TrEMBL record, chains A, B:
Keywords: Ligase. Gene3D superfamilies: ATP-grasp fold, A domain, ATP-grasp fold, B domain, NAD(P)-binding Rossmann-like Domain, Succinyl-CoA synthetase domains. This is Acetate--CoA ligase family protein. SMART domains: CoA_binding (SM00881). It comes from the Bacteria. Residues 11-106 form the CoA-binding domain. GO terms for molecular function: ATP binding; ligase activity. It holds the Pfam family ATP-grasp_5. The keyword Ligase applies.
Length: 698, 698
C-alpha cells in the first residue's frame, strides 16, 4: 500500500485534468466543468475522455483513461453507476493522483452502494489514488481556474475571486453558501463539496485551503463530525495564520439528526460535544448558511474589536431603541462615551440632539450630508468605543448616501475598529457594500455578527498559559477488568490523582464504624459500599449526621437488612465526616467515540439530569476557563452569596474541575464515564471536595 | 368642554383637508401631502393655506385658516414653532375636527416644549379639536387617497392599496414598516404615525382602522404603553373580526428603555408585564419591523394551522436538516406522515428517495417540474400535516420555478393550510410572491413565522370558559392604613378569600404555643410574627420541626432575645404544623401603574430572585392557563416526579394560582404587592397550601 500524502495541491492546483464522460453540451454534468475551466482561465492541460466524439466543446478527446498521453493530476469522473467504478480503477492503474467522483448511487442509497464504494476506495488507496466523493458536486478554485464542479450556481451569480473558502459535505449547501456570499458582493476563491467522503473529508480540504495565502476566511458546512484530528489540525493552522474558521454543523436537534441520517447516513454527534469541540479549537459556529455569510461579511474586514462595547449612530430615534435592545440580546454593551467625546459631539449635533450613546443624529442628516462622518470623527478616539453600528432605516431622496458610505469606509480604515451598517433599502445597502462596509438587514443581524467577532477574538486570545504542557495526568487504574468501581474505589482513584476528596474509611462492621466516628470527632455519614449500587440514596442506604453510638448501630442494622433483602454484594460501609458545604456542584466526564473525553460541570445534586445547569468542555482546560463558563450558569448568583449568605469558594471548585479535566484527558480510552456528584463547595477559603463519585471503565 | 368622540372617521376619511403652510414645492413638507393626494386620487376638497401665493401646485390657496369657506374635517399643520400653535388655535376657532401637527419642537425637546404642547392640547380639547402629533409624520390612507403625510417613503417604493394597517409612534418606523412590507410585495392601506401623542394615540388609531372592513391585519410600533384600555378595546374588536394585531414594543432591555426615554421621553414599561398584557389580549409580539413584515406576509394568507406539525419538502437533503433544526428551535414538530401518505409518496418519488418527512425530493426535480405539486398532492390529506415548508436552496437554469410557484399556490388555496417557501435567490422568491405564496430567506425565519401563527391561533381559541364572568373576587381588606400586613394577617386575608393556607395560630407566650403544638399533634414551625420583619429566616426567627416542650421553650426564649436586641414590635409567635410538601412553589402579585395587578408564579423558595423560574400573567386566568405556563418552566420535570419521586399535585397548585389571580384582580388599586412563598405542593391528591405570605397595601 502506497503512503497517502496530506498534501492535496493536486486537487486545488492540478497541472492537468481528465474529464471522464466529457460532454459537448455545457449544460450536461460532463460538459459543465470544461465550459467553466475555459471561461475562468484554467491554465493546465485538459484531457476530455469520450469514446464517441473526437472533440467536445472544441477540445480534442481521448477514448479511454488508459489512452491518455500522461497520468493527469486529477480526473473528474462523470459517468454513471459501475462505469464510474471502472473509471476510478482505470485512473488508479494509470497513476492519476486524485479522482473527483461526481457520480451518485453509492453509500447514500444503502448498504449495497456502500459496499461498492468501500471496495472502490480500498483499491484506490492501494494505488495511491485519492478520491473526492462519490456523490460530490466537485471542487472549484477561482484562484487557478480549476473548476472541477458542475454546480449551476456559477451561472446564476457571476464568480469573483476573493478571500473566502467554502467547504461543504453537501453540494447544494456549497452552492448556496457561495450564492449568498456573492449576493453580498463577497469574492469566493474556493467552493468545494466532499459528498460521501469515501476518502477526502471537509477537514482535509480545510487544511489544504489554509495553505493558500490568499484565503482569509474558511467556511464549513458539516452534517457529521468524524475526522476530528484533521479538523483540529486545520484549526491550529488557522489560529497561527489568524484566519477565522466558521462552521455550520447541522443536525443540532433530534429531528435534525434524524433528517441528517436519512440524507447522508450521517452518524449522530452529541451537539453539546460538537459545541465544546468547536470552542476548544477556536472554530466559530453559525446557525445556517445565511448567518455564515453575514459573519463572513464582517470577518473579512481588517478590523478587530478590543471589547464588546458598541456605539450606535442613527438618523432615527426608534432605531436607536431597537439597536440597543438587539445589542442586549447579543450580549454586547452600549459604550458610555467619555465627556470629551460628548463635548465634541455637542459641537457637531443640533442643540436638541442628545450626545449620549446611542447617538440620534435626527433629521439633521438631511441638511448636512457629512454629519455621519463628523459624528464618527468626534468619537473615534473614545476608549470605550470598541465597535460601531450605523443604523439607517430611512434614506433615499434628499440623502447623499454615497457620501455616508465614503465617510463610513474611511472611518473604518482609519480606526481599525469593526463598523457595521443596518439598512434594508437595496440602494442604500449597495452604496455601503460598494465601499466595503458590511451591511445587515436588521439590528439583530448586525449585533449578532459583531458579538460573533468578539467571541472569535476571545477564542484567538484565550490564555492557555495556565494549562501545563504535560496537561494529561497519567492515570493509573486499579487492577481488574471493566465495569463500575465502587464509590470508595472511585473516590480513592480521584484522590490518588490529586483531586480533593472528603476523608473516608471503609468499615466492615459496627466497631470499626464507631472507631471512625470517634476519630473524626464530628457527626458522620454512613453509606453502604457496593459497586453494584450506583444509586444508594434511593434505597435508603445513606444515613446522614450520625453522632451517637446508637445511631451508628441502628443505621448499620437497617442497611444490612436492606442489603440482604436486595441480595447484593457489598464491601462494608463508608464512614466520612459530615462536612456541609454551601453549594452542591458536580463534575463529570463521558467518553465520546468521536471527541474522546467530554467534561461536564456545574450545579450538582439530585436534579442534574432533570433541570441541568451545566457547562460542557473538552479537556484540558484551566481554572480561568472554568470560571468563564460558571459565569454563564444560572447558579452563578448563588455562588456569589445572595440574601446575606456568604460567597462560595468558587476558585477552589474551578481548580478542582481544571485538575479533573487533566484526569479526564489522561483517562482517554480507558474510562467510559466519571460522575462526581456532589462536589461540595465551602465558604470562600474552605475549599471544595468531592463527596460521592462513580467511575465506569470502558 | 365639548365631548370627545371616539369616532375618528374625520382622520381616516376626511371630506375636506386644509394644509397650513402649503408649498408649491412637492419636496417640501407643506407641499408633499398635496402632491400625494393628487397622485393617489383623493376625492375630497383640498384647502391649501398660504398667505404669499395665490396658487400652489395648481391649487387655489387661502391666506389664513380663518378665511376658509368652511371648517374642513382635517387640517395639516406644517408651519414651524409658535406659528403651528397659532394655526391649531385658528383651527379650533373655525371648528375644524382634527389637526395633524407635523411641526416639531414640542415635548420631544424638553419641559418648555412640553408646556407649550400641553397648553395647545388643552385649548384644542375645549373646542372639540382632536390633535394628531405634534412631531407627527402624518396619516396616510390609500383606500381614500387621504395622504396627510410627508413621508418620502412613498416616493421610494410605489404605494399599493392592500389589507395591512401600520400604526406607529415613530414616523421613521411607520415608513420603514411600510417599506419592508412593500418590498415583500404586500399592499398597505393605512400608514399612520402619532408622534408625541398629545391627544390621539396608536391605540385610538388601531380602533379606527379596525372599523375599516378592508383591513385584515394591524401592525403596531410602540415605545411606551400607556393607553392600555384603548388598546385592550382594539384587541377585542380585532378578536371579534379575526384580525391579527402584531406589535413591536421596543425598549425591552435596560439599554433600550434608556434609549427610548431619550428618544420620545417614553416612560419605562416592565417588559414582562408588557408581554403578559399582549398575551392576555391576544396581541402577537414581533421583535422588530423586519419580523413584523415577515409575520404579516404569512398572516395575510387565508390559511389556518390546526396544530404545530410541519411538513418539509426540499430539493436538498441538507436543507431538510437545517429546516428540521429550525422547526425544533421554533417549537414546531416534524409531522409523522401516515402510511397511506408514504405509500402515495413512494409512487411519486424516485426509488432511492425517502418517503419520511422531511421529504427530500432530490435532484429529480430537474427532470420532473411537477414534482413539488405531486408531492404536495400526495400528502395533502394527511391529518398530521398542519402546515408546509417548501425549501429551495438551489434553483435556476433547468428548473421551472414558475411551475413550482403555481403548484404551491394552488395547493395552498385548496388545502387552506399555511404554506411557506424558503428561497434566497431573488428570482425564485419573486416567482412565488407573484403567486401570493410567502417567501423567507432562511429556515429560521419561515419556522418562526409559522410558530407565530400557531401562537396567535392559540390566543384566538383560548378557552376562557373556565374563568367565571364575575372573575374578580371582592377583596375586603382589614381595617387600618397602608403598609405591610404581618405574616399572620397576610395568610388570614388570603384564607378568607378562598386561598388554601396552612393552619396556624398566633400564640402570645410559651403556654399557648405548647397548646397549639399539642393540638396539631405533629412537629410544628414557630415563627416570630411582626409586620416589621419581612425576612424572618435571615434573622434566625424561624424554628422548624419542634416536637418537645423543651424545644418550644428554647425557641421562644431565643427568638425573644433576638427580637428585643432588634427592638422591633411583634405580635407573638405563629405556630403551625410542619407539613412537608414535595415542591416549594410561589405566587405573587405586583401592582403596575399601567397594567394594574400583574401575577407571577412558579418555582418558590429562597432563590426566586436570584435564579427566577416563573411565569407572568395578567389576571384573571384559569387553572388550565396556569398549567400551560408551568409546562414551559424548568421546574416542570420535577413536578412530574423524577428519580422515583412521586408526582406533585400540580392541579391543586394551578387552581390555587387561578384563584389567587381572581384575588389579585379584586385587589386592583388597593394592594401594592402580594408575595406567597412558599406555596407547598404535596403529593398528587394532597393539595397545595400557602405557608408564608407578605401583603403590602398601597
Amino acid at each position: 500500500m502506497t503512503a497517502i500524502s496530506s498534501n492535496l495541491d493536486f486537487l486545488l492546483d492540478p497541472a492537468s485534468i481528465a474529464i471522464v464522460g466529457a460532454s459537448d453540451n455545457p449544460d450536461k454534468i460532463g460538459g459543465r466543468p470544461i465550459f467553466y475551466m475555459r471561461r475562468h482561465g484554467y491554465q493546465g492541460k485538459l484531457y476530455p475522455v469520450n469514446p464517441q466524439r473526437p472533440q467536445v466543446q472544441g477540445e480534442k478527446t481521448w477514448p479511454t483513461v488508459a489512452s491518455l498521453p500522461e497520468a493527469p493530476d486529477l480526473a473528474i469522473v462523470a459517468v454513471p453507476g459501475m462505469k464510474a467504478v471502472e473509471a476510478v480503477d482505470d485512473c488508479a492503474a494509470l497513476g492519476v493522483k486524485a479522482a473527483i467522483v461526481i457520480s451518485a448511487g453509492f453509500s447514500e442509497v444503502g448498504p449495497e452502494g456502500r459496499a461498492v464504494q468501500d471496495d472502490m476506495t480500498r483499491r484506490a488507496r492501494q494505488a495511491g489514488l485519492r478520491i473526492v466523493g462519490p456523490n460530490s458536486q466537485g471542487l472549484a478554485n477561482f484562484g487557478t481556474g480549476a473548476i472541477a464542479s458542475f454546480s449551476t450556481m456559477f451561472l446564476e451569480i457571476e464568480p469573483q475571486d476573493g478571500p473566502v473558502a467554502v467547504i461543504s459535505q453537501s453540494g447544494g449547501m456549497s452552492a448556496m453558501i457561495y450564492g449568498v456570499l456573492r449576493q453580498r458582493g463577497i469574492g469566493v476563491r474556493h467552493m468545494h463539496a466532499t459528498g460521501n467522503e469515501a476518502d477526502v473529508t471537509v477537514a482535509d480540504l480545510a487544511r489544504a485551503v489554509l495553505a493558500d495565502p490568499e484565503v482569509r476566511i474558511v467556511l464549513l458546512y458539516l452534517e457529521s463530525l468524524q475526522d476530528t484530528a484533521a479538523l483540529a489540525e486545520a484549526a491550529e493552522m488557522a489560529r497561527q495564520r489568524g484566519v477565522p474558521i466558521i462552521a455550520v454543523k447541522a443536525g443540532r436537534s433530534e429531528a435534525g439528526v434524524r433528517a441528517a441520517a436519512s440524507h447522508t447516513g450521517a452518524l449522530a454527534n452529541e451537539d453539546r460535544a460538537v459545541q465544546a469541540f468547536f470552542e476548544h479549537h477556536g472554530i466559530l459556529r453559525a446557525r445556517d448558511p445565511q448567518e455564515l455569510a453575514r459573519y463572513a461579511e464582517l470577518f473579512i474586514q481588517d478590523a478587530h474589536p478590543s471589547g464588546s462595547r458598541v456605539v450606535i449612530v442613527s438618523n432615527s430615534g426608534a432605531s436607536c431603541v431597537l439597536a440597543s435592545d438587539a445589542a442586549d440580546v447579543a450580549g454586547l454593551q452600549i459604550a458610555s462615551l467619555a465627556d470629551t467625546s460628548q463635548h465634541r459631539l455637542s459641537t457637531v449635533l443640533s442643540t436638541f440632539a442628545t450626545t449620549n450613546n446611542p447617538i440620534d443624529i435626527t433629521a439633521a442628516l438631511l441638511s448636512n450630508n457629512r454629519l455621519f462622518g463628523e459624528v464618527l470623527t468626534a468619537i473615534e478616539d473614545d476608549p470605550a468605543a470598541d465597535m460601531f453600528v450605523l443604523d439607517i432605516p430611512v434614506a433615499g431622496r434628499g440623502y447623499d448616501v454615497p457620501s455616508f458610505a465614503q465617510d463610513a469606509a474611511s472611518f473604518a480604515r482609519r480606526s481599525g475598529k469593526p463598523v457595521a451598517v443596518v439598512a434594508w433599502q437595496e440602494p442604500v445597502a449597495q452604496a455601503f457594500r460598494a465601499k466595503g462596509v458590511p451591511v445587515y438587514a436588521d439590528e439583530q443581524q448586525a449585533m449578532s455578527a459583531l458579538a460573533a467577532m468578539v467571541e472569535h477574538s476571545r477564542y484567538m486570545h484565550a490564555d492557555s498559559s495556565e494549562i501545563k504542557p504535560d496537561a494529561a495526568i497519567d492515570v493509573t487504574l486499579p487492577p481488574g477488568g471493566s465495569g463500575t468501581l465502587s464509590e470508595l474505589d472511585s473516590l480513592s482513584l480521584l484522590s490518588e490523582h490529586g483531586i480533593s476528596v472528603i476523608p473516608q474509611q471503609l468499615c466492615k462492621d459496627v466497631e470499626s464504624a464507631l472507631d471512625a466516628w470517634r476519630q473524626y470527632g464530628v457527626p458522620v455519614v454512613l453509606k453502604a459500599c457496593s459497586a453494584a449500587l450506583p444509586h444508594k440514596s434511593e434505597y435508603g442506604l445513606v444515613a446522614l449526621g450520625l453522632n451517637t453510638e446508637q445511631a451508628i448501630h441502628d443505621a448499620i442494622s437497617s442497611q444490612k437488612a436492606t442489603l440482604e433483602k436486595m441480595s447484593v454484594q457489598y464491601d462494608g460501609w463508608i464512614v466520612a465526616p459530615l462536612r456541609k458545604g454551601l453549594q452542591e456542584m458536580m463534575a463529570g466526564m463521558n467518553f465520546d467515540p468521536i471527541f474522546g473525553p467530554v467534561v461536564v460541570f456545574g450545579a450538582g445534586g439530585k436534579y442534574v439530569e432533570a433541570t441541568p445547569d451545566v457547562a460542557v468542555m473538552l479537556p484540558p482546560f484551566s481554572a480561568g476557563q472554568v470560571m468563564d463558563k460558571l459565569r454563564q450558569l444560572r447558579i452563578w448568583p448563588l455562588l456569589q452569596g445572595v440574601r446575606g449568605e456568604p460567597a462560595a469558594d468558587i476558585q477552589a471548585y474551578a481548580e478542582l474541575v481544571a485538575e479533573f479535566s487533566r484526569f479526564a484527558l489522561g483517562s482517554n480510552g480507558r474510562l467510559k464515564s466519571v460522575d462526581i456528584n456532589p462536589v461540595m463547595v465551602g465558604h470562600r477559603g474552605e475549599g471544595a471536595w468531592a463527596v460521592d463519585a462513580l467511575i465506569e471503565r470502558i
